[in-house]
Amino acid sequence: MDGKGWERVRMARLGGSSASRGREAAQLRQVSSQTVRLGRVQPQAPSHRTIYCNDREANLLARFKVCGHIIYGVSIPRICWHLSYFFCKILIYLVALLLFQVNSVSTTKYNILTFLPKGLFEQFRRVANLYFLMISILSTTPISPVSPVTNVVPLSLVLLVSLIKEAFEDWKRFQNDIAINSTPVDVLQGENWETVSWRKLQVGDIIRTANLDGETNLKIRKALERTWDYVFPEKASEFKGEIQCEQPNNSLYTFTGNLIVENQTLPLSPNQILLRGCSLRNTVHIVGAVIFTGHETKVMMNSMSVPSKRSTLERKLDKLILTLFGGLFFMCLIGAIGSGVFINRKYYYLGLFEDVEQQFNPSNRFVVSILTMFTLITLYSTIIPISLYVSIEMIKFIQCAQFINKDLRMYHAETNTPALARTSNLNEELGQVEYIFSDKTGTLTRNLMEFFKCSIGGVSYGVGITEIERGQAQREGRALNEIQKSDTVVYEKGFNFDDDRIMRGAWRNERDPEIFKEFFRCLALCHTVLPEGDESPEKIVYQAASPDEAALVTAAKHFGFFFYRRTPTTVQLRESHVEKMGNIQDVSYEILNVLEFNSTRKRQSVVCRYPNGRLVLYCKGADNVIYERLAGTNQDIKRLTREHLEQFGSSGLRTLCLAYRDLTIDTYENWNEKFVQAKSSLRDREKKLDEVAEMIEKDLILIGSTAIEDKLQEGVPDCIDTLSRAGIKIWVLTGDKMETAINIAYACNLINNDMKQLIITSETDAIREAEEKGDPVEISRVIRDSVSHDLKRCLEEAQQDLHIFGQKLALVIDGKCLMYALDPSFRVDLLKLSLNCSSVVCCRVSPLQKAQVTSLVKKGARRITLSIGDGANDVSMIQAAHVGVGISGLEGMQAVMASDFAIAQFRFLKDLLLVHGRWSYIRLCKVITYFFYKNLTFTLTQFWFTFHTGFSGQRFYDDWFQSLYNVIFTALPVIILGLFDKDVSASLAKKYPQLYKEGIRNTYFKWAVVGVWAFFAFYQSLIFYYFTTTASENGHNSSGKIFGLWDVSTMAFTCVVITVNLRLLMACNSITRWHHLSISGSILAWFVFIFIYSGVMTPNDRQENVYFTIYVLMSTFYFYLTLLLVPIVALFGDFLYLGLQRWFFPYNYQIVQEIHRDEVDSISRTEFLEIGNHLTPDEARSYAIAQLPREKSKHTGFAFDSPGYESFFASQAGVYVPQKAWDVARRASVRSSKRTSQR
What we know:
Layout: H1 18-33, E1 48-52, H2 56-73, H3 77-81, H4 85-100, H5 115-123, H6 127-138, H7 149-181, E2 184-189, E3 192-197, E4 206-209, H8 233-236, E5 242-246, E6 257-261, E7 264-268, E8 286-289, H9 298-301, H10 312-342, H11 365-379, H12 388-404, E9 420-421, E10 435-438, E11 445-456, E12 459-461, H13 467-476, H14 513-525, E13 530-532, E14 541-543, H15 547-558, E15 561-566, E16 570-576, E17 584-595, E18 603-609, E19 615-621, H16 623-627, H17 635-650, E20 653-663, H18 665-680, H19 685-696, E21 701-712, H20 716-725, E22 729-733, H21 738-747, E23 756-760, H22 765-773, H23 776-805, E24 809-814, H24 815-821, H25 824-835, E25 839-843, H26 847-861, E26 865-869, H27 875-880, E27 883-887, H28 894-898, E28 901-903, H29 909-947, H30 959-969, H31 971-980, H32 986-991, H33 997-1000, H34 1007-1032, H35 1045-1067, H36 1073-1095, H37 1109-1113, H38 1117-1144, H39 1148-1155, H40 1165-1170, H41 1177-1186, H42 1206-1213, H43 1224-1238
Helix pairs in contact: 1-2, 2-4, 5-7, 6-7, 7-30, 7-43, 10-11, 10-29, 12-29, 12-31, 13-21, 14-15, 17-21, 18-19, 22-23, 23-24, 23-25, 25-26, 29-31, 29-34, 29-35, 31-36, 34-35, 34-38, 35-36, 35-38
Membrane topology: Multi-pass membrane protein
Binding site for Mg(2+): 439, 441, 870, 874
Protein name: Phospholipid-transporting ATPase
């Protein structure tokens, strides 16, 4: 069992026999008595571990032995030579205690000792921070023209903000750890349960725990029959045994182990394992043994962060930073050359005598140039925006926490699920997505399955018409002959079937009633569903691992085979209308073996024994898998069922084939012996089980097929149509049949009649003929040749239709062909063909193929991709794309845990991409280019001054001016720009989705845009420097003195601060009170600072020349005239350019602004949330939830990734919020406090 994420086995007391423990101890003593040369032994990692339950001493001895092997195998012989054997044993014992005994877990990134060094290491991994560290070190040398404070202060402030952010996030994780580690649990001590905290649990402890809230999709977990009696502490204390199991790993869905009891080996599988985060049903509590503890648990081993993704804009920002480095080097090179040329003793007033320092010694001009180069590097260091990264981080974090997570337009009231940004690194990436890869089931559809039609014995049943059929008829312009449903039709969740021929026992009158019995019993027996509630057809509730299974069992109930009870070894049915109409009998079927479904097998089987002793194997699965395993008889049923499967697929239904096989006792016993051996194997258990399953899943007799309808989610067609108009190409990657996938694509507007379909399929005569022969080599050759031919044909057609006729194309390809098309020899053709298509549908694909297709476009075409899915089979696809979006639906939380963003419905993509993604992209583009502009402007004024100082490196500005320019005087307005700028409203962004294409084309962060900002930075710097210096030549203060260096530089700096802040207003599309406050506050902050700074002088002050400067300047009329004229002249060029650009070369959003310039955005987010009396009850509850505090964690993993403890905080605030799966830790801590208070 997982101790903290613990695998709990309800096998109760697992313990080691005294004989086994004695042998283990004897072996240990024998090993200890041998002479061992430390460092010489190369230990082999054991493939499994042995656990003695309810015996801590025996477990410690076992760990002691393993640690001894580890310590002895460490390759540090010279140290070990000097250690006595006694101290080695003490060391081993301590290592055993530390590594194997502690169940306390920590998800924090830092601790008290590592916070500062590790935090600083993380910060200096950024090139800009490392650059400023080197500049700060350089500024402490004699060659630096500025005080170290010039560079140390801004660097320190940036590091301080970043470290505070890191500390805050880690403190939240630490509090979460405390709550989890303090949760009480009952541990068996002697013959009594003793309550202890989780941190004190050890491997082998027997525990009793109650319900653990977690996942919504349930799976059967059952104890071994041998351990059923060991529930009460008195009985459990008598049990002795040992567990041999796999080493700790991060595979959540596999487990290999054996329970050894009294020399009897019993296999353990995932069916006997419970991971923390599960929901217990049909039992009050469980008793189990702890298998893994602490950081060895499966949950903790999955809690590491997924590989971090960097946005495309951030990578382009790196190129811009490198360009700035190039510009810096060029400026320093000019200054260095100029210094070497200018330096000369003829300028006697400079005092360049023989004893002058090397930096100014005309005798060695080369050394002068080199030293001047380093001097100017420190002087021009402000060209690199040190506060850029921390500003972007703050903007992204607030965008996620306040805008995306709290957007009512992406709140799903039915499930009480808001949108969730799990990372803030990719906000702007949402505004540049060109390709979307989507799963179908649960993503485009509701994943609410309804039994709709079926085929039994070659006859099709069911008279309903699907949404897909209606849409198909509408496209083709034909009328549908809908059959009126009978008055007695039964409708239930999961069952939407009507056909009087087989309902209410009428199937007994069909041609072959026996095959109907097999069909219905297969539905009622071959599953892993759990019944809940009263054992009556009206009140029972089925808990299933997937909605498909629940729908099939519900269908069996309505056909007269009511599944009402399950025990670990039996399934009980209440069968009616079997022998006579109205007869009801309870029948118990013994379930001997379950061959479970997985993505490789694509089928599920059970071996059951009838009360009369009949042995039957029932199997259900994908049609292609079942057909491969059928006996050679009943060709007519095979042919008719295949036709029905194609019809069901054309109607958009999900199909499964049902088959059975009668087994003799000898056949079964021989097979079961091999099955038990495979199940008990500790190596390659899954592979061996699949091989054994193949031995019995053959010579099947086809019964029929089922057809289940999964309706589209609300708003999917409109969403896909809107995203298509936005220039986004959508690919559907599904495991369904081709006909089903095509019709779903039609229903959701992915494909329409105006598109030409290019189909590459393995369902051709040549491939079928090769498959019938059964030669794998020949089959591979035929499919490969077919794929090669089809790719070339489709590529030629695509180029002709697209470039000549301008027709839109849709590509449809199945999994078999895709497997060969992804081969390196065909991959380029597949990519070319796919990129020419507006829509692509890949059907019958595996999870691996989904990831491969995503990577093909991501790496091959270098386009920005987004993957969206809802299930565990979509995780690889989600992680392969630039942006991963998880649907928090009925398939559990695996997709959400692996995603970057989580939403409840596919239709919310429209708001996520067209609104938040687009806004984030535009805002961050402006933030980056504005940072570039303001730093370049400031640095160039210093650069022009260098020409007037003989390239000596004399500073133009005071050190403190230079230090605080980025972190105080211009910092806040740019953050406000990144948060609140909005070119068009959310409604207009969705009304004109074509606006999104500007992000796909990267319109706002091209080199041309950067060049325009650079040009005006160049122009304004000339104005700032030459206007003030030239005009001040004739200026003087009230005492008659002319202005000096510090007077001119202070005046120029004042103009810079005012102008760059006003320029930001010109870049804004929407101006709020926050813009006014930040800009006026920044300018005011400068004047407050300079008043204080000029009025105080300390004895050690390097800048004594600035003393009283501002007071002198403000006493002159020249100062006020300069403050009025310089910003006007500097911004006139920008004003003229922006006006001409908007008039003659407008962006698309500017055209929309003009169209709607007189309209008020009535549904803007701010106004919408403030008008509380206009909210519906659902919206009001959502607003209340949005105001609750949230906790963030960068860690993934079920129990430890806590997007927000809404339920806990809502209860404190008096707001009703249903319990969420991720609230485990918080509820555990609340339960803990309640139990403690009760005691």
